[in-house]
Amino acid sequence: MRILHDPGLIIMKILALACSCLFLAGPLLAMRAQTFDTKVNALFARWSRNDSPGCGVGVSRNGVPALERGYGMASLEHAVPITTTTVFNAGSISKQFTAMSILLLAEQGKLWLDDQARRYVPELPDYGRPLTIRHLLTHTGGLRDVFLLLGLAQPHDIGEDPNAIVIDMLTRQRGLNFAPGTDFEYNNGGYTLLGEIVKRASGQSLRAFAEANIFRPLGMADTQFYDGRKTVVANRATAYHADADAVHVALNSDPGGLVGNTGVFTTVRDLLRWEQNLAEPRVGTAATVSAMQKPMVLTDGTPTTYGFGLELGRYRGLSTVGHSGSGPGVATYVVRYPDQQLTVAVLCNRDDADVQGLASRVADVYLPDTSSPPSSSDAAEPVRPVALSVEQLEARAGLYRDAATNAFVRLFVRDGRLMGNAHPGGDAEVFPLTPVSPTRFVLPTTPIEIEVAPASGRVQEMRATGLRARPFTLGKVTTPFAPSTADLTAIAGKYRSAELDVTYEITVKGSSLVIHAPGRSDIEIEPVFPNAFQGSGVEIVEFSRGAIGGVTGFTVYAWSARGLRFERVAG
Q1: Closest by Cα among 467, 434, 435, 461 to 448
Q2: CA distance 342 to 253
Q3: For residue 249, with 0-12 CB atoms within 10 Å meaning exposed, 13-18 middle and 19 or more buried, which class applies?
Q4: Which of 83, 359, 460, 557 has its CA 20 to 30 A from that of 223?
Q5: Count of C-beta atoms within a 10 Å radius of residue 497
Q6: 251-284 per-position pLDDT tens digit
Q7: What is the spatial distance between Cα 541 and Cα 48, in angstroms, rounded to a whole number?
Q8: Alpha-carbon dihedral sign for residues 491, 497, 503, 504
Q9: Is the pLDDT of residue 202 over 90?
Q10: Are 79 and 238 in contact (CB under 8 A)?
Q11: Which phi and psi (to 5°) does residue 515 adopt?
């Protein structure tokens, strides 16, 4: 047998083999890409019609777009389909652009993250503890939920600047939900305040600053902070709400010029450009971009799952960096898997889309098979429910209260299941709990877990994890409260809040009280524990008495607006 020793012939053979492999690789890669496309198409097939609103979807790998596609209609009225250039209201995805604007100003030396917010907005009160820009960026400032406050106040003229209305309400508040830096609570108003700080520190509106320093340098030509109702947005998708009967144009879908916490209008293509900046910074230094993606640590050392305008999490054992957005007719989510250099953006003009679930299913198509399979949560162990009798469930039912903050959770049994509700008035906030032991229950697909057990033979307690940055304990309310008609009549009257600039009138209705708020629907409040009532919106209302026993006022303790004081007034 003749052995080939000629080097030239060997090289020629190798080159011929390489060419044949390249010839085959092209079709194989195309087939693989087609398979990816087919799988993603199947996820959005239900909306890929000319009679349905839908979503824009973008995927990039290693900084290169792998898929950009529209499913469904941007406008049902004008028969305009969703394309890669369709502009969507991004909702709270906007926060990362507000955060970057603040960080760029810090790079320019125009502010410092540990400056007190009062340095730029001196109208803010002195809370006794520094409230810094860093606290606002990371939702650890303890500000009351300004949009709940606005809902409790007298309605404002819709023609007014909504940003000014928000700032005015925040500066009226004399209390916080918690001391800055000690806890985490997602807060939209804090980001509106950050938008105002950008304006005052830079001398430009947030819209103008972001355009000059973020959007234009990154080539995000279809992205803007929408800061006025009269602004024309080309290729804008109409927002829709779908119910059991039909699809409707969503009411109150327009942010109306509110910016900071929301207000960005963008495309999936532009979002992919922005996400690549978080991997390979062109806007902002490497240190700035890295800081955005690190969790805030509370004063006691507890880490949160939030950086600067970005949510930090895990999926299939992999690190994720992203953010969601929602509102009437709006559902959005963008997520990046930094170690896999994969980004998925889903922007929908319908509010019934499970955008986080859809983005995860899209990621499943592109993630390597070596990662962990999807599970019901990121917990190490899957949920293994146990069967409990109705009697066992009923033993855990009741009202549980945090005596320090008056935060509460009501547990009750419905259709053989234990249910929870942290907000009275309707089923909007009701959540089912799955038993995993006689005393432990979880809320599937979330990190929320509660344990209900006697506290060393004393009053039953509920320990909750996953609702806040750290676990907290609530005691079961066991003292009956059934005020007489005379007791209720003694409470009836007028009460004023300087922080809300509003006066309420309270009247008696049977065994309950009714709050009449000007320009708002009446709120019926029912007795729950001594001197305290509960009702939708206000949640817990606790009345206080003077030295001779007369009612002097009341305090509202809502989950996101605690310690709101009303004083009794004559008349």
Answers
A1: 467
A2: 31
A3: middle
A4: 359
A5: 21
A6: 888 888 999 999 999 999 999 999 999 999 999 9
A7: 48
A8: negative
A9: yes
A10: no
A11: -95, 125
Beta strands at 512-516 and 502-509: parallel, antiparallel or unpaired: antiparallel
In 3D space, the residue among 160, 269, 53, 169 whose CA is nearest the CA of residue 561 turns out to be 169
The answer to whether 95 touches 323, Cβ cutoff 8 Å, is yes
CA distance 294 to 367: 23
For residue 97, how many other CB atoms are within 10 A of its CB?
25
Q: How many other C-beta atoms are found inside a 10 Å radius of the C-beta of residue 308?
A: 25
CATH number of 485-569: 2.40.128.50
Parts of the chain belonging to CATH 3.40.710.10: 88-142+177-366
Return the SS3 of 166.
Answer: helix
Residue-wise burial string across 156-192, b where 16 or more C-beta atoms lie within 10 A, e elsewhere: eeeeeebbebbbbbbbbbebbbbbbbbbbbebbbbbb
* 255, 487, 569 from 514: Cα distances, Å: 32, 14, 17
Nearest of 72, 116, 6, 56 to residue 355 by alpha carbon:
56
Q: For the chain, what's the residue count?
A: 571
* Alpha carbons 335 and 358: distance in angstroms, whole number: 11
Cβ density class 109-147: b for 16+ within 10 Å, e for less:
eebebebbbbebeeebeebebbbbbbbbbbbbbbbbbbb
Distances (CA, A) of 444 to 26, 205, 250, 304, 490: 44, 43, 29, 21, 45
- Cα→Cα distances 238→80, 94, 248, 337, 372, Å: 10, 18, 10, 30, 38
Going by C-alpha positions, the residue among 522, 495, 527, 523 that lies closest to residue 511 is 527
The domain made up of 390-476 has a fold known as: Lipocalin (2.40.128)
C-alpha 421/C-alpha 409 separation (Å) is 6
Kindly compute the dihedral angle of the four CA atoms of residues 360, 247, 330, 186, in this order, to the nearest 10 degrees.
Answer: -90
Determine if the pTM surpasses 0.85: yes
Q: What DSSP assignment string belongs to 81-118?
A: E--TT-BEE-GGGGHHHHHHHHHHHHHTTS--TTSBGG
pLDDT digits (tens, 9 = 90+) for 467-503: 777 788 898 988 888 999 999 999 999 999 999 999 9
Residues of the chain with CATH 2.40.128.50: 485-569
Q: Tokens standing for 430?
A: 């009701």
Output the furthest CA–CA distance in the chain (Å, rounded): 117
Average pLDDT over residues 117-140: 97
Return the pLDDT at 35: 83
Q: Are 397 and 414 contacting, i.e. CB atoms less than 8 angstroms apart?
A: no
Return the residue matching tokens 């909702």: 91
> Which residue matches tokens 């599970």?
375
What are the two backbone dihedrals, phi and then psi, of residue 492, each rounded to the nearest 5 degrees? -55, 140
CATH 3.40.710.10 fits 88-142+177-366, yes or no: yes
